[in-house]
Design goal:
Structural class: mainly alpha
Radius of gyration: 31 Å
Strand content: under 5%
Shape: elongated
Strand order of the largest sheet: 7-9-8
Distance between the termini: 71 Å
Number of helices: 27
């Protein structure tokens, strides 16, 4: 069979193998076996030539796999396997496993989150081999934190075996010059615009390569992985024995193999496109579910000048290197736990950390991290606060369950106020319209769309509703940047702080509405006066929304210097993993905890959990 009429599938596979081998030799120069992920990120940031060869190596390997499978099916379809010698056909049958082994070892050598997960899966599967499974697994992949054995097999053992099989089967390791050049041209164009994937250690979704996710899908449903391993070897054995059986029986077996191949393609599509975090279902076009971009698109060459930087200038943040700090290196104002030197920029703002080109680096960037729509990718990523966001999403600060249910009950739309509700699910009934007019803007899940300090008009914002703090300098620089139409010459040098210093000002924007809790607590009581009537009068306060308040008397706790957070603690505001119908059920601290007549209820320092320790210290 031919492809684009220029040669057979087998010839294209050989050309792809040659290109893959040559590009692999070039790629081995900047690749560091002792620190593979960092060496690859360094290539992506500062070595566009190496990036091209990495992409060429990747896509030529994919071509080799695909056209080898097509070539094999050509053989089976025409019955050509019976023309092969038994020994040659045995090695050709085994080469199917070796091809996949070469592919998966190349994938593992990226040493990113996807690769480490795939390595654990494949080593666990191989270890199920009877009697010698652990020995075979170690001999193929080595210890978990070491890539030396995998590297040797990838560049030498398995590749040399494939070269021998190709020579034995095709009597050559070369193909027509036209086939080689056309294949090289096609692969070069693809490599310029579609780049080999690399996990950023931020996305909660981790998958193996596309040809492996079908197997992952099968393993997800099979209780005993050993059966999968047994089936794979049976399949290879069946392919080998085709040369010994009659054509009629072989034809039936080949049809079964073809149908199994179709099933595997369907499983691959499901696993690659429709599986999300923790094997949940997702739709691939919903970009809010994850920050995955399997194949970064666009030309390799960055607009920035590489002469301005050296490899040693690229800072390493945690598991990866990031180019962000090469442009934003003067930015200050961070707490130690959120310093880019510790967590980078992309932990919060996403984007592409491996590019010096502004447009590409800022692609898919989150301007306001912490909104509950993106918090699972930012604040709640695997290395940050993965346990917090599930609690927050279930808290009354997010659901407003009691407010919604009581409102609907009062309007006669439900029979009981003790029904769990969620503010994001309100519709357009009379009760829900009332909620939209008065309450819906204040729930925690409401999007904070613009950067800037928290003020009296702030609503929602997820994590940043409470944990964002601007200094005078950062606020002034932000205002100058906004007023200057976001002129890059006015980029702020002081970043707002993300910390646990939560003041009453964070609560005021939402809780000065409705029940006026924040204003009453501070002693301010709303009037019907107009702002013009109270200008210059000290006992009056004009809020940003032009409401006029008069000072009467502050709550005794406010006079004593207590903040809202002193009573309404983290487990009350951010939830405790339980679902509550009403606010009074979620309250954690009560009056008698401070105003006690008998021995108070206390806990020792050793009993404090990690969250409480941060606050205490």
């Amino acid at each position: 069979m031919s492809f684009f009429t220029f040669d057979t599938y087998g010839a294209i596979a050989i050309a792809s193998f040659l290109i893959c081998s040559i590009s692999g030799v070039v790629l081995a120069i900047p690749y560091d076996i002792n620190n593979p992920y960092v060496s690859i990120t360094t290539m992506l940031i500062a070595n566009p030539a190496a990036v091209f060869f990495r992409d060429l190596h990747y896509w030529s390997a994919q071509f080799f796999l695909v056209f080898s499978i097509l070539h094999l099916w050509d053989y089976l379809k025409t019955g050509s396997e019976k023309k092969q010698k038994k020994g040659v056909w045995l090695r050709l049958s085994l080469s199917i496993l070796v091809i996949f082994f070469v592919m998966i070892t190349g994938f593992i050598l990226k040493a990113d989150a996807d690769s480490i997960q795939a390595r654990r899966i494949i080593t666990a599967l191989v270890s199920k081999f009877p009697f010698f499974g652990n020995i075979i697994s170690y001999g193929l992949f080595g210890p978990e934190d070491d890539f030396q054995i995998t590297y040797v097999h990838h560049i030498a053992t398995a590749t040399i075996f494939l070269a021998i099989v190709i020579w034995e089967h095709a009597k050559t390791l070369w193909t027509k010059i036209s086939t080689f050049l056309i294949t090289l041209a096609i692969l070069s164009i693809i490599s310029l615009f579609f780049h080999a994937p690399l996990h950023n250690w931020l996305s909660p979704i981790m998958k193996g390569p596309w040809y492996f996710v079908g197997l992952q899908e099968i393993l997800h449903w099979v209780t005993n992985p050993g059966f999968v391993l047994f089936f794979i070897f049976i399949l290879i054995f069946v392919i080998y024995v085709l040369i010994f059986i009659s054509e009629n029986r072989a034809s039936v077996i080949k049809k079964v193999i073809l149908y199994l191949f179709y099933i595997y393609i369907v499983l691959t599509i499901i696993g690659f496109f429709f599986r999300g975090e923790n094997w949940t279902w997702q739709v691939p076009w919903n970009t809010q579910l994850n920050n995955e971009d399997p194949f970064q698109t666009g030309l390799i060459i960055n607009k920035a000048s590489f002469a301005d930087f050296t490899i040693h200038d690229i800072p390493q943040t945690g598991k990866r290197q990031e180019a962000c700090m090469l442009c934003h290196k003067e930015v200050k104002g961070f707490t130690a736990s959120h310093d880019p030197q510790a967590i980078g920029c992309t932990s919060c703002h996403l984007g592409d950390p491996f590019s010096l080109d502004k447009n590409r680096a800022h692609r898919n960037m989150v301007l306001v991290p912490g909104n509950l729509s993106n918090a699972h990718l930012t604040c709640s990523s695997q290395d940050c606060h993965p346990e917090i966001i599930p609690r927050v999403n279930n808290s009354l600060m997010t659901t407003n369950s009691g407010i919604v249910s009581v409102d609907r009950f009062v309007f006669g739309e439900i029979e009981s106020p003790d029904i769990h509700s969620h503010i994001r699910e309100i519709g357009h009934t009379a009760a829900d319209k009332h909620l939209r007019d008065l309450c819906a803007k204040c729930h925690l899940g409401n999007e904070k769309m613009e950067t800037g300090p928290i003020d009296e008009m702030s609503r929602g914002g997820g994590c940043t509703a409470c944990h964002l703090n601007y200094t005078n300098q950062s606020a002034n620089e932000h205002m100058a940047y906004i007023s200057g139409q976001k002129n890059e010459d006015l980029l702020p040098s002081m970043h707002p702080s993300l910390d646990i210093h939560i003041s009453n000002d964070h609560c005021f924007g939402c809780h000065s509405r409705s029940g006026r809790i924040s204003t009453n607590y501070e002693g301010w009581h709303e009037t019907l006066l107009d702002e013009n009537e109270v200008t210059g009068k000290k006992r009056f306060r004009i809020l940003q929304d032009k409401r006029v308040f008069e000072f009467v008397a502050a709550d005794v706790h406010h006079t004593a210097g207590m903040e809202c957070i002193d009573c309404h603690n983290a487990y009350e505001l951010m939830g405790d993993d339980n679902s509550y119908l009403h606010e009074e059920l979620a309250v954690k601290m009560r009056c008698e905890d401070c105003h006690f007549e008998i021995r108070p209820k206390t806990v020792s320092y050793n009993q404090l959990d990690s969250a409480m320790l941060k606050i205490f210290n």
